[in-house]
Amino acid sequence: MNSVQLGKSDLTVSRLAYGCMRIAGTWNPKEITPEREANGRAALLAAYEAGYTLFDHADIYCAGGCESIHGRLLKDSPELRRQTILATKCGIRFGDDKSPHRFDFSKEHILWSVDQSLERLGVEQIDLYQLHRPDVLMEPAEVAEAFEILHRQGKVKWFGVSNFFPNQYDLLAQFVPFPLVVNQLEMHLGYLDPFVNGTTDQCQARQVTPLAWSPLGGGWLGAGGKVPEGDKREKILEVLDVHAAKYGVSRTVMSLAWLMRHPSGIIPIVGSANPVNIADAAKADGIHLERDDWYRIYISARGRGLP
Description:
By secondary structure, the protein is of the alpha/beta class. It has helices at about 35-50, 65-75, 105-120, 140-150, 165-175, 195, 200-205, 235-245, 250-260, 275-280, 290-300; strands at about 5, 10-15, 15-20, 55, 85-90, 90-95, 100-105, 125-130, 155-160, 180-185, 210-215, 265-270. Strand 1 and strand 2 (about 10-15) form a beta hairpin.
């Protein structure tokens, strides 16, 4: 798989990332059985074999269980660390009997979260650390202070954000003394907002790499994906299938290649835990859509012609 530079960082990563949210097979860490762990390892190894080097985690994925599975694999196969750019996130706190579901960018929570992820992953440094969802109570100077501490301590190499609108990115970027190198966003043919709300424009202008989560819309845009009969999305799938046949690839590959054709340099995050699907998705790196084909697919996603 080809490689690209991640934003303004010195990190070189694969053109597709592997998303580790599903490798535990559950959201409850107490339910990680030996079989589920083995399946998670098989998914990770399939990603390494297919050439993925950017691995995306978050502290909430199976309450840290996904990070732990990857950490145990790296401990058993330390040579894989040289092939791994580790990314993870913090900021989402689930509710309980005492507290509501909330977001938390406080200095204390960021610093604590990094230490927990480092321990679970079994590494001394996280390559890319992201704030998961915008905290309405964010104090940008406080976040910047936490980032500076983590960078100075060598615990985090580079920082980014996730699900930020351009104004939210700009606010934080004014306070952080080094580049925020990524913005991880929901982007797929069923959700085109980042292409029209200024987000991908900002990424191009500031040399920020967009990471696309759920690039297959949760699965319906992938090979074998379906929508209810009569659903307006049927037209998207029809057009995708025509173009997948033209280029000799699966619908999964065509959906990912469509994103990757955008000049902002979108890196789709592939989230399947199926080794066959992980390998198939990697083929999108070898497809370059013609402009007319890209627009035919785009128009089908818009559901109406261009003005």
